[in-house]
Structure formats: structure tokens, C-alpha cells
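Before the break, one more example. Copy the sequence into your notebook; we will annotate it together after we see the structure.
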Amino acid sequence: MIHSASNYDCMKFFKFIVSLAITVGLFYALNTKIDPAPPLGKFLNPTTGFWQQAEPQDMLPGESLDLEGLNEPVDVVYDEHLIPHIYAKNNHDLYYAQGYITATNRLWQMEFQTHAAAGRISEIIGNQAMDFDRTARRKGMVFAAEIAVKEMMKNEIIKEEVEAYADGVNAYINSLTDANLPLEYKLLDYQPEAWTPLKSGLLLKYMANNLNGRERDLQNTNALIIFGREVFDILYPDMEDSADPVVEKPGQWDFEPVVLDSINDNRIAEVINRDLIEGPNPYNGSNNWAVDSSKTASGNAILSNDPHLGLNLPSLWYVAHLNSPDVNVLGGTLPGAPNVVIGYNDSIAWGVTNAKRDLVDWYKIQFKSDDKSEYMLDDEWVKSEMKIEEIKIRGEESFYDTVYYTHFGPVMYDDKFHPDSEKKYYAFRWITHDPSEEMRALYELNRAKNYDDYTEALNYWLAPAQNFAFASVKGDIAMRVQGKFPNKRYEEGKFLLDGTTTQHDWTFIPNEHNVMYRNPERGFVSSANQYPADSTYPYYVYASSYANYRNRRINNVLRETEVVTIQTMMDLQNDYYNLKAAESIPVFLTALDSIEMNATEREAFNQLSGWDYMSNVTSVGASYYEKWWKILYPMIWDEMINGEVAVPYPTTYTTIKLIKGNPDFELFDIDTTAEKEDAEILLIRSFRQMAEEMADLAENNRDELEWSNFKDSYVRHLLRIEPFGRYNLSIGGNGETVNAMKANHGPSWRMIVELDPSGPKAYGIYPGGQSGNPGSRYYDNYIDSWVEGEYMKLQLENSSGEIKKPLVKQTLNPSEK
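Here is what the structure looks like once it is written out:
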């Protein structure tokens, strides 16, 4: 959808309103007021200020540009969706052009995200971001990115790729003037800096942190001490009994596993400060699946993918088509890094979901003295490495934080970071610190022609661990749970470990022993962040939590559907069936049989008992259920919410299972009441509270009971500047439905590809737009279609002249020196 001229005029007026808002200090960054505010005279200057961001409706890229650093001309065709189709005669020029074109649309976003990864936000907005920056520094984000770049530079092909991309970005940066500087630089009053391969490395680690940075080892340690072994095992099972793993082939693991020697239990039993760093969003996940030719109407394999992440403007994704003599690939790219991350070429398609696994361990370090220059390891004092982190703070003197690196990694928690730590020093072992070759994996995957090529490409993918779904024009489908996985003994690393010994050093599961299969008899593969394999898989598998509902809903639909089409895939990606509700509401309502209800409670009961479990836009039952759950869940686990130390919350699935099968479970009793509560009492109490609160809501505006209004989904600007976001989106779904749309988290990119031998048929959409400029009609023009479950047709043409409905054709020429 493209904004009309009248809408564009509204945008200009809206910009004026925004300028007024700035003058009275209503801009916020990271939920905090920007300080210092931009110089208003400079910001409002009619020739160089923010007015330049109001693009004319017909503004498109110029038809010709001369760029220093290109070897040969590159053709770029922008289609009707502003997707660039980049045609280069060699790979150097291809990635140079990708860097240049991406920067023209997303430069500020690229740089802001890499500043966040590097712990440099305080440079831009002041000391409000200090805790954020210190956490990134102590986590070793730059350390990880530097290691990744060293690995990139060992391979001449990848080295050329990332350097060419950086040169392209810098060509755009060098062309900027005060007038055409992206809006956010003007708003925050700073300038872009030169792009380097390290920034691309930081972007990849930024994503790795979102996907594999979650763990609960320290919380587990607390919980085991507080609740005891028996209760702990009930609350936090390694593998829940919901079944439907990513790969299920009982007894068919055709390899001899690497068995580790037994050792003494070296976990540390100590209660850990409640003030722990919050992990990434637990709902960071995705859906993907592929159906083979036996189940499709066309006889072609079809692949679908929709990664679930926090939703921002500009969008995390930028769609691009890359074409050179050895590659023809289209899909979602990450602004700031070369290649396509999720996409398809002439022969294959692939999609990823987060492969949840325990890839973080914590070790208690014993320092020799308060200066932390030496620590105990294997009965010897060994030197620690001291790294002084200078955190520059806008408008203030720099803050210096000293981080100590050990054999296991950086000491993230100490008395400098947490003054109440009582000299409990914890080092952070993280897979993201290991050398990795994800850039090479993507380079090879973009060029893959068949299953063997896909397998070979994934051999280079080490982190973040992902479930890679695959389909090809030959009709093959496959799933591979790919990453560099520590080979751990039972419960090793599930709790705080002893850092005075190397007995718990990581060794790794051989790559060829990772969970995978090809062309299963059932005719499809799928993953939705669930447990990776059936119980016969011979390695210990653990993560902080696994999905239990989306995966089963997807598999149920695919099993029951005999003839699959592209429309089937679209319908499933937009599916609102709430399996969690279907499995819990009948039991919940049974608990109410013994009570007399007033009119308000009867209304709530009727809404829930008559609900079809579809969390669609207008559903009222979905709102009642969500409100009930949000009251019931903390009421059940009051010990964890009100306790003095941090412990993990049991999963939704385990909670419901206990309500059903163990209603007298000891922790259902609320500590602060004289009554002995059980599941039935808590269900009744939370139901009555829910009914009253929903009645109060309806009294003010009954429309607020409809699910989309109750949930109130939105896509916000990265700086939380409200006028630059989109709010009150009329969309259903929740975190447990296939369309996993929560308030500000959900499907960040939907892609469906049918692998037709005559040419792929592909569709995609994401909640944003190709431009990062809030004054452009291409800034958020995809959102309405995405909300409605609509898609845009993607074009993978081998010739620039074959692109249908082109907006403009641009030629990037080598400049004469």
C-alpha cells in the first residue's frame, strides 16, 4: 500500500506537530528524556534541518551515480515495493552496492544498533544509558565481535565481501551533508562515523545476544536451595511431556555418541543476589516449516518462515535481491551485514527459528586478593586479564569500568558492578565469544543449489544456534538444528559451577551428531522453538524453556491437511487458534461449578464457555482469558515474585499441568494468608477478580473488551518517539498462537516460497517499510498489509529488464579518479 497525496500532506502537518513537540521536550530515548536536547535553531533550520526529511511523493533514487571503489557498473532496479534488485558483474561490486543501497535507507538504524551492541549509547544520549552500556561491555560484546572479524579475515572471499560492504556504506556516509543527514542524527545532534567490518560483526553479535543470550543458571541455583530437589524437579523439568519435538526419529540416531568421563559434582550451592541482569525476551523465537511434493497441490515443495522478535521502526529487516554471475538470491537482510539471512534462490529456500539450548554457563571465581589480578585454577594462581572500558558519556566525563577476563570469560558480576555482591564473583562462559563463521555460512547458503550444498554451508554456522528448514526444486525438504553445542553431562551447567577447576571446560558435540533429518515419511518438517529431539537422542539437552503450543498446532494442521497450497501456508502463518486456552479453559471452568455467580461473573463465565479459542481481532473470550491468566499466574507463583532472591518462573505448560494433575501442590498455598489454598481456590479467587476488572473496563468502553483493543499492539520507533511509531493495530494472536503477535513482539518477517522448477513463486511481508526515514511514504507502508495477513509478491528475475512495475532503474558507475 502506498500513501495517497492527501495522506502525504497529513504527514507534512504531522511533522510540524512533531517539531512543536521537540520544543517542549517531549522526545524520549530508551524510555528516558533525551538530554541534552538538540539545538533547536539547527534542528529547525529550513535548509538543513528536519524539514528535509519530508520527501515529495514522487521522490525516488536518481538514475545514475558515480561511486569511487566500484570496478564495473552496477544496475539497481527498485520495484513497486522499493525492493532493490542489485545486478553486479562481480561479487566485490555486488556487496559494495548492497552496503551503499542499504545505507541510503537505513544508515541511522545500522549505526544505532551497533552502538547498542558495543555499549556506546551513553555517547549519544547521556548517562541514562549507563547501565545498558556497562552490561554490554561486561558481557563482552565487542570482545565477541573482534573474534568474529578475525575469523572473517582469514578467508579471502569473506574478507573481500565484508570490506566491500563497508566501502559501500562509507561511500554513502561521505556523500552526506547537513541537509540530507538522516533525521535521528539531527534529533540527537551527532554525526555518523565510518563503517568498518567490526560494525558488521557487532550487528551479528547483537542478534546472537537476542537469540542465545538467555539462561537461568543462577536462578536455578537459588531455586534448588530454596525449594529442594523434589519440588525443583516438578517445577522445572528438562523435557516437558507435550511431545512433538523438532525432529522425531526414535532409535534412528545412527552414530556413536561421545561419552564424557564422570567427575565430581562441582556446582556451587549459594544464594545469589536478586539483582540479576535481565535476559533477552523469552518470546524471541519463530516458526518455520517445509512441505514436500507429496502433500502439495502443485507437486512442488513449499517452505514458510516467520521469525518472532521485538517490532520496531525502522524494521529489523531490509528486503533485497542480490545478483552476480554466481548468485541470484532474494530475502530478508540485516541492515549492516552482507548477504541474505532468510530467503531463496533459483534452487532452494531456507528459513530459521531459534534453537533453544543452554549456551551460557556461570563459574564462581576465587580471586587471590581484592585487586583481582590472580585467581585460582586447578590448584594454581593464574593471572587474570584486566580490560579497562571507557564509557564516554555525552555532556560528562567518561566513566571507566574495569572488567576482568578469566579462563572462562569475563567476570560480569563483581563488587564493582554489584556493590552488594559480597565478593561473589561470577564469570560468564558464552558460545558467542567463540570464533564463528556465520558470514561464510550465509555466503555459501545464498549460493546453494541442493541439499548437499545446504548441508555444507551449515557446517560453518556455529552461533546463534538455529533450526534451519530447507526445501529445493528437486522436492527435498530437511530440518537441521545447527550450532556449536557443548557436550554436557547430566545437569552440567544448569547451576552455578566451580570456577577453580577446568573439569567443566566445554567440549563439543560433533557437528555431524547434531539433530537433523531429510524427507521424513510424514511429508513435512517444522520447528517453533520446541524441544529439539525425541528422548532417544543420546546427548543431554537443556534450555531455560521450550515452546509447547505453536509447534503442536502447526504439526496438527500439517498432518491433517492432505493438499497444501500457498494459501494454506498463508492461512497457517496467520492462524489465531489458541491451543493453550483449548487445553486449559475446560479445566479452569470446572473449578467454578461449586460457586454461585453474580451477573458480572456469569457474563465472564458465558464469554469463556462460549469462546471458540480463536484469538482473533474481535474476540471477547480471548480478552477474558488473558486477563484471567495474568491474575492467576502471579497468584500461583507468589513465592517467586515476592521472594528476596531471583528464581525462575515455571513455564505456562508446567503451570497448567500442575493445576490439572496436582491441584494440592504445596506451592499453591499463598504464604501471606491464613487459608490453605489449592488450585481450585486460586482459580475461583482469580476468576472473581478478573470478572470485576473486566466489568469495570466494559463500563468505560465495551469496545475495549475486543481482543485487538485489549491487547493494543504497536510497532514503535527505536527511540520510543511516539509520533514515529504505529499504534493501536487491529491484529489478533498472542505469544502461544501461530500468529504470535503480542503487544510489541511478533512476526517480524513472513516469507513463503514454492520451489517451482520453472521459477520460484515467493511472497513476503514485514511490519515496516524499506525506508528508515519517517518522512517517506515507504517508511511504514507494509504495516497495513501485514496486519491484514496480506503479502507482496517477490520477484527473483535473472535480468534487470524482467522486473515488473519498476519504480526506477539506477546505474552505479565507477567514478573516474
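The chain is about 30% helix and 20% strand. Residues 165 and 715 are 29 Å apart (CA to CA). Try to locate both features in your own notes.
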